[in-house]
Structure formats: structure tokens, C-alpha cells
Amino acid sequence: MPAAFSGRRLGRLLPLLLCISLLEGSPAGPDVATEELKPAGKEISYDVLEYEIVLPGVSGTALQKIVSVGSPTKVELTCKLEEHSDLKNPQVTWKRRNETISHTSKTQNSWTIQLTVSESSHLGSYSCVLKGEVEVSATFHLQVPKIEGKEKTLITYERDLAVMICKTEYAPMAWTWYMTNGTELVAINPSSDTNKFQIKIQSANVNRLEILKLTKEDSGIYWCEAAFRLGSSKKRFEVKVLSIMAPLKPFIAVVVEVVILVTTIALYEVYSKRKGDEGEREFDQIEQLKSEDDIAGERK
Q: HSE on the CB side for 153, CA within 13 Å?
């Protein structure tokens, strides 16, 4: 009996001991789940934007090009001489402000630099200067996309609707509208006053602000701001709200002038008529006196 009990106990313990032995004998390895969560150490790849300025090789030539950069990217800038330029084998220098940059590639008549624009400090002006018998240059202005359109005054009337539209070449991360309060810019929040302001997104790169039921207090300066990963752009609007009577003022002025003119003419005619009547009466009196004198002379 004790032997049978011991055998059964040993039979239960053997699988447990075997599992412990296997676990202790297995080599230590990395936690698979933890390893999968580690980020891969890959370099960020950017699309390459290519821009070129062709120089004629004429002395004093200084060409410029605006390059809009909305998000981190790689940019290739190339200065190229015209095929039949008289400027042969020029000395070429690339500069960013006062810093000289080496060009990354060149051909017989073109010189290229490649830039990784990953932050706002990489924006600015990059120039190539070609020196030989003559000197020519070209400048690339790297900047965040500008908001299209001219700054202008929007003239409207009380109780009317004012509409301002901002548009950019590239879609920004966010749009913000501001109104000027003295020297401060106050962000417009349509949700706090839906009866006054409405912001409508026509597309990712077009934004529209509507001001409803205008009053004279709505006159002032408004701004829209487009935020990009490398910076932001702003556009200024001026709103001028006129009284409803403002369009009628010229008409009222004309009517007043006409009334004054008609009144003057009428008064003149009345005066002229009265003066004519008085003159006739005087003439009749004089004639009557002459007649009486003639009669009196005949009697004598």
C-alpha cells in the first residue's frame, strides 16, 4: 500500500519536474512582444522638389524664384546657364546669407545643391553667383506658402453680410481667424456666437469667414492664419461698415440742391412780377398826373 501510494505520487511529480528542467535549460532570449514594440531605426525619407533658374549670362542679371515649402522635404536648387551663353567656365559660389555652401552636383553648364528642409530655420534665401567675364546671380527664396489675394478694404453696409476668403497653394494643418482689439489679436470662435460668425471650409486649402448682421462696431481689421509644419502665413482684411443712409446721401444732396434752385427761381419770378406790377402802377400814376396837368392848363 505505501509502495503503491509512493508510485502514484512519483508519477504526478515527474511531469512537473520535467517542465521545470526544460524552463531552466532554455536559453534566455528577448521578450518577443517588447521587441515588436521597439521603433525601427529607419531614416525619414522625403520627396525631392526640384527648382531651376536659367541664366542668360548677361552682365548684371539677377533672377529670383519663390519656392513654397509647406512641410519637411528635400529640395534641389539648380542654377543653369543658357546653352549659347558667352559666359564660359565661370567660378560658381552658392550662399545662404553669408555662409558659403558647396554644390552637390554639376554638369557643364548647371550647378545644383540639395537641401533637407526639416525645420523653419532651414528656410530663407539661397543664391548662386557665377563669375567670369561677367557676373550673374540667381536667388531662391524658400518660404512657407503665402495666402493668395491682395489686402483690400471690404466696404459694406449695416445689416448686410461680410465675406472673407483665404486660399493657399498647399493645405495647412489648421486655419485660425482673428479680429483686432486695439493692438491685440483675438481669435474668433464661431461656436460661441453662431449668430455673428460662421467659418466654412470650402476645401483643405480654402477657408471662408462670414460676419452676419453687420453693425458699425464690426468695422476693423481681421486676419486669417494658415499654420504649416514649418511656420505660418497671415493675410489682412479691413472691413468698413457704412450706415444704411450712406448710399442715399448723394441723392439727398442732389434733391436739396434742386429744391434750393427751384425755390430761388420761384422767388425771383415772384419778385420780378411784383416789381413789374409796381412799375406799371407808377407809370399809370405818372400818365394820370400828366393828363390832369394838361386839363388844368387848358382851363386856364
A: 7
Tell me whether strands 48-55 and 220-228 are parallel, antiparallel or unpaired: unpaired
Dihedral pair phi/psi, residue 283, rounded to 5°: -60, -40
Q: Give the H or E element holding residue 233.
A: strand 231-242
Q: How far apart are CA 183 and CA 235, in angstroms?
A: 16
pLDDT values of the chain reduced to their tens digit, one per residue, 300 residues: 444 444 444 445 444 444 444 444 444 443 333 333 333 445 567 778 999 999 987 777 889 999 999 899 999 999 999 888 878 888 999 999 889 988 888 888 899 999 999 999 999 999 999 998 888 999 999 999 999 877 778 999 999 999 999 999 999 999 999 999 888 999 999 888 788 999 999 899 999 999 999 999 999 999 999 999 999 999 999 999 998 765 666 766 777 788 888 888 888 777 777 766 666 666 566 666 666 666 666 555
In the numeric block, the cell 548662386 is attached to 128
Long-range contact set of residues 45-51: C-beta below 8 Å, sequence gap at least 24: 46/72, 46/73, 46/74, 46/116, 47/73, 47/74, 48/73, 48/74, 48/75, 48/76, 48/114, 49/73, 49/74, 49/75, 49/76, 50/75, 50/76, 50/78, 51/75, 51/76, 51/77, 51/78, 51/140
DSSP conformation letters of 104-132: SEE-SSEEEEEEEE-SGGG-EEEEEEEES
Regarding pTM above 0.85, the answer is: no
Q: Residue 92 and residue 113: Cα distance in Å, rounded?
A: 12
Q: Report CA-CA distances (Å) from 194 to 126, 190, 210.
A: 46, 5, 10
| CA-to-CA separations, 128 to 59, 116, 117, 278, in angstroms, rounded | 15, 18, 18, 97
Q: Is the dihedral of CA 69, 173, 200, 211 positive or negative?
A: negative
For the chain, the farthest-separated pair of C-alpha atoms sits apart, in whole angstroms, at 199
